[in-house]
Amino acid sequence: MKFDDILGHDNVKQRLRKMAAEDKIPHALLFEGPEGIGKLAMARAFAQYLHCQNPTGDGNPCGLCPSCLQYRTFNQPDTFFVFPIYKKKSGKDSFCDDFAGEWEEFLSENIYADFSTWVKILDSGTAKPVIYNNEGDAILRKISVKSYSSRYKIMILWLPEKMNEQCANHLLKIIEEPYEDTLLFFVSNTPNEILPTIYSRVQRVIMKPLPLPLIAGYLSDKYAVDGNLAVSVANLSGGSVTKAEALLNINEDNKMFLELFKRLMRSAYVKNLRDLKDWAEEVAGLKREKCCFFLSYVAKLIRENFIYNIGNASLNYMTKEEEEFGAKFSPFINERNVAVIVNEIDKAVADISRNANGKIVLFDFAIKMIIAIKS
Ligand SMILES: [Zn+2]
After folding, report:
1. Both 261 and 362 in a single domain?
2. How far is the CA of 76 from the centre of ligand 1 (A)?
3. pTM passes above 0.85
């Protein structure tokens, strides 16, 4: 995670870089602000920056040194995370380490974290995730081990407001009598719910909601959301990326959209007209706006696959699942057909917006794909 990966918050980034440059990093920092604006990402970027062996001139972790590579694979030995979990078996203790796989999945898929996404990944049923008392011992144990490969030992604790009191008391001791070169980064959505004894002892980094144009730009870039829709969703988001994404239902829809995209291209490749007709009927069955949104998603993936094909993987904005398909599909998208396909999509969107018969427009479009991906 680099600072540049996070939208906005330039003042916060500068403040953190300054702390590092002046070697005046408070022992306990609290990143506080509304959900979904990049607080956890900021804590992660700062930790990676402090551990980076070769930070770039523009003040980012390099992304290439051994420590940065360990951050990418979630095994940097001098950093550990604490976060709310549930008890896997009632009556038996559970620790954050028992959920390392889920946590890795959560972090690798989401720059902008929200609690409900975490709950979904945890699959905790009716149990409310919290940070249990026994985690305090685990923290103490981890923090008392000297750092391996760098100066600082860093703990990133997500959502201290969900910490049981006994665990909080453990932490209080560590905050009051700090170990040398140990840094505690807390990340909170609701700081007013943190135990006052802890809250009064941390240095606060207040992060504000993101400016709406940044959110709108992010939605357009990442999800190919039409400009006007992006602006109206941004206005409703209150400056939170996760809220904007939830408003667009992006996570749920994205999965369905990717499946529909794969099916279109596979059926076009084997010239399965019957399935293309079924496909057209299914897509036409979506609400008109969603149907247009899906087509703009198809256009986005076509462009991304073209970029992938011409070997500019670093310029790609595909999810892991999209890229998995793209690895096989991208050779079919080239300079001869990319503009043709995008143009056909634009025409289909225009027709559907004008109330044309969706089934006919989409079947026609699907048939054109048979020819286009063979050229
Ligand atoms: Zn580095």
Report:
1. yes
2. 11
3. no
Residue at a domain's end among 248, 276, 311:
248
pLDDT digits (tens), the chain, 375 positions = 999 999 999 999 999 999 999 999 999 999 999 999 999 999 999 999 999 999 999 999 999 999 999 999 999 999 999 999 998 877 788 899 999 999 999 999 889 988 989 998 988 777 789 999 999 999 999 988 888 888 999 999 999 999 988 888 889 989 998 888 999 999 999 999 999 999 999 999 999 999 999 999 999 888 887 777 788 788 888 899 998 988 887 667 788 999 999 999 999 999 999 999 999 999 999 988 788 889 988 998 999 899 999 887 666 677 778 889 999 999 999 999 999 999 999 999 999 988 899 999 999 999 999 999 987
Distance 83 CA to ligand 1 centre (A): 25
Q: Let me know whether 282 and 354 are in one domain.
A: yes
Length of the chain measured in residues: 375
* Same domain membership, residue 275 and residue 364: yes
Whether residues 310 and 362 share a domain: the answer is yes
Q: In terms of C-beta distances under 8 Å and separation of at least 24 residues, what long-range contacts does 139-142 make, across chains too?
A: 139/82, 139/167, 139/170, 139/171, 139/174, 140/170, 140/174, 142/80
Please report, for the domain that includes residue 123, its CATH number.
3.40.50.300
Domain span at residue 269 reads: 250-372
> Is 162 found in the same domain as 16?
yes
Q: Measure 320 CA to ligand 1 centroid, in angstroms.
A: 23
Distance 12 CA to ligand 1 centre (A): 20
- When divided into structural domains, the chain yields a total of 3
Q: CA distances (Å), 336 to each of 216, 273, 332, 339, 340, in order?
A: 32, 24, 10, 7, 8
Query: How many other CB atoms are found less than 10 A from the CB of residue 236?
Result: 11
Q: How far is the CA of 116 from the centre of ligand 1 (A)?
A: 31
Query: Do 244 and 281 have their domain in common?
Result: no
Residues 156, 280, single domain; the answer is no
Angle at 105 between CA 99 and CA 108, to 5 degrees: 135
Same domain (yes/no): 193, 232: no
